[in-house]
């Protein structure tokens, strides 16, 4: 069994009294650190490949903290990670039926991004339900700003997950205030072509998400 | 032309939010899978020569993202000067 540092997550859980009842099995080791293992199948009984399981346990601490901030329930977060690991396992089996070794570093990154998207999906459904019930009572609901921020976050995660390397690099440079002309120059494109390329990726993500 | 102006404003808001979100959403205190600084420098100066994993990593690691923003800011200053 692998050991992972999870002091922060553990403290959060202990403070909130939510340590009991999660699919994770915490065991206090002699040195005072917790041991986490995910289930080898998700809640629907789908098998998680050993390499994916190992990658999922490798990102568990980070994924858990991020998921907990958004979803608030450790059990939901852990279940979400297991579901994503099962889906990724299926994708790995389909793409790589011979069972060649997968680059672990890439697998962890891929799994983490897939987890972010899944958490966003769950959160979006949650906000939609709250939104509909609040709309019935108020004309200008207090969750409007939070909902807008969530939409931006979901859109960003979708764009970054789906766009190619060049569009991603364009985004980094635009975030730092580069003009489209400067961005295009780096990639051998005109300012207009660079802008069009990124706008297309953004528009595709908007259409997929219906935002 | 009202339409382009609205688009520009939306894009500005989107990138502003993205920078703020990515700079703190993924603390990664154990620096799991972080590339060396030299990879980030190469990504800033010659993006096509770097493993796409490095750019992908920036989407889920705030320390590396912040460092990369610093490098891009330096690059922009040097280009302007």
Average pLDDT metric of chain B:
87
Percentage of residues in helical conformation of chain B: over 70%
> How many distinct beta strands of chain A?
2
Question: What about the largest sheet of chain A?
Answer: 2 strands, antiparallel
Portion of residues in beta strands of chain A equals: under 5%
Going by helix content, strand content and strand pairing, the class of chain A is: mainly alpha
Rounded to the nearest angstrom, the distance between the terminal CA atoms of chain A is 43 Å
Helix segment tally of chain A: 8
The stretches of 5 or more residues of chain A where confidence is low (pLDDT under 50) are: 1-34, 140-144
- Main beta sheet of chain B, described? none
Query: How do the SSEs of chain B run, as a string of H and E?
Result: HHHH
Helix and strand element order of chain A:
HEEHHHHHHH
Largest interface: A-B, 39 and 33 residues
- How much of the residues of chain B is beta strand, in percent? under 5%
Distance between the termini of chain B: 34 Å
Task: Describe what you observe in this structure.
The complex is a heterodimer of chains A (211) and B (81). Chain A has 211 residues and is an all-alpha fold. Chain A has helices at 7-16, 50-71, 74-95, 104-135, 144-162, 165-175, 180-186, 191-209, and strands at residues 27-28, 34-35. Chain A has a domain at 7-116. In chain A, strands 1-2 form a two-stranded antiparallel ribbon. In chain A, helix 2 (50-71) runs parallel beside helix 4. The termini of chain A are far apart. Chain B has 4 helices and no strands. The N and C termini of chain B lie far apart (34 Å). The relative contact order of chain B is 0.14. Residues 1-6 of chain B have low confidence and may be disordered.
